[in-house]
Each structure stands twice: as structure tokens, then as C-alpha cells.
Amino acid sequence: MLTFLICGIFLLAINAPIATLYATETEPTDLGEVEIREYEGEDLSSINAFRENSIKGPQYIDIETYRLNITGLVNNDSLYTYDEVISDHQSYKKVVTLHCVEGWSAKILWEGVTVKDLIEPAGIDPNANTVIFHAYDGYTTSLPLDYIIDNNIMIAYKMNNVTLPPERGYPFELVAESKWGYKWIKWITTIELSDNDEYRGFWESRGWPNDADLNPPPVDNPDNWIPEFPSWIILPLFLVATLFVVAFTKRVFKQSEQLN
Question: In angstroms, rounded to a whole number, what is the distance separating the alpha carbons of residues 47 and 200?
Fold first, then answer.
């Protein structure tokens, strides 16, 4: 009886490592995409560090019917599915900071494809000098063709290693490096080649500079620089200030009369 007991314990002992080995060899469970907050020694902002300031709120696009249209001054119009944009073109990664005119910024690792790789196969007309971007919500903006090509400007489909959420422009957002945030158009549906270098997009037609350069103002003393604000912002501010002055003046006179 003792012999059988010893043999049983021995068999359990030699089988234990095998059982453990089988457990560790099972396929790992995919927990989905995980946001990274550091890349090659650079700290990254959270993908939630953005304010919602689109013209119609976040857009939710059906990716099954989505097509990216390349049109305008090209030899052949092109249509790409979401998967074709990603799978049929070289992908790139780059850390770029978005600066908003509201005063906040976010440093993000963007992953996407260059606009150049999308438009060149369509055959660019020699007269084209401008790229106009159209969004699902009707928003538009434009940038010089030379800027797009020379700087390898890309449309991103990932940020910080995760797919763009709808709030950030899924399926594609323009990474307009060295430009203010209103050039970073989201929910891109059409890329149009044009010869109209005077084209003004949504905010540009309302007074914001068309070049949107981040460079400091070209003045001797930046402290004395007064930024350009669109008239649609200046007028309400002026009216509010006027009403405040009138109300304050009436209150002062009323208190003065009471004292007398």
C-alpha cells in the first residue's frame, strides 16, 4: 500500500511541470489597442487632451461605405476604401504637436500615409498649386501643393498607437505640421487639386490667415504685437464691452445721486 502511495506522489510530481507548460503555451488574449504616452524618449500628450471645437460636433462615419476621393486637377479621379489607403501605401510615424489658436496644444505620435503618395498616382496637372481638403461635416481648408509635397504631409489614421476615435477625425485627420490647428481638418472625404491659390476654407473665409503659419509675428517687439482676430469675434466683444461700460456708468451715477 505504501508503495502505491509513493508511486502516485511521484507521478504527480513529474506531471506537474508538464501541466504548467501546457498552460503557458496557450495563445495570448488580445486586449485591443493600448495608447502609448512615450515614444523614443519623448513624452506624449493623451489622446483625450483635445477640446471639441468642430463646426458640427463629432462625425460618425460608416467605414463600409466610406470612400476617399482624389479629384480636381488630376488626370484620373481616384476612390480609395479605408483599407486601401492603409494597406496599399507606405505608412509613416512622426511626433508632431498640434497648436490651437485657443491657446492649448497636444504632442502626439501620428501614424498615416502621405498625401503625396495618394495624389501622385492620379497624375497631378501642371497647373495645380493648391490642395483643398473636404470633410464629412462640410468643413474645408486648403494648403499649397508645394508645402504638402516638400514636407511629406500625411493624413493620419492612428494617434499614440491607437486608431483615431470619431472625436479626433476617424477615419483620417490631416497632420498639418507647422500650421495652426484649423488646418488640421478631420473626417477627410475628398482631396481636391486646384489652381486657386486664393481659396479660403471655413475659418479662413471668416478672417483667419490663410497661411496659418506658427512662426512668430514679424515685428521688432513681439510684446507689442496685437493678433488678428476675425470680425465676427471682434464685434461681439465690442458690444459686450460697450454694454458693460454703459451699465457701470449708470450704476456710478445712481450711487452718486443717492449720496446727494
Answer: 29
Asked if residue 74 belongs to a domain, the reply is yes
145 domain-assigned: yes
Instruction: For residue 164, give the DSSP letter.
Output: P
Paired residues of 141 in beta bridges: 133
> Which three three-digit cell numbers place residue 80?
480609395
pLDDT tens digits, 30-56? 567 999 999 999 999 999 999 999 999
Cα distance between residue 260 and residue 257, in whole Å: 5
For 80, the enclosing helix (H) or strand (E) is strand 78-80
- Look up residue 79 and give its three cell numbers: 476612390
How many domains are contained in the chain? 1
Residue 218 in grid coordinates: 514679424
Measure the CA–CA gap between 111 and 116, rounded to whole angstroms: 15
Predicted TM-score (pTM) of the model is 0.73
Sheet holding 68-72, edge to edge: 78-80, 68-72, 188-194, 130-135, 140-144
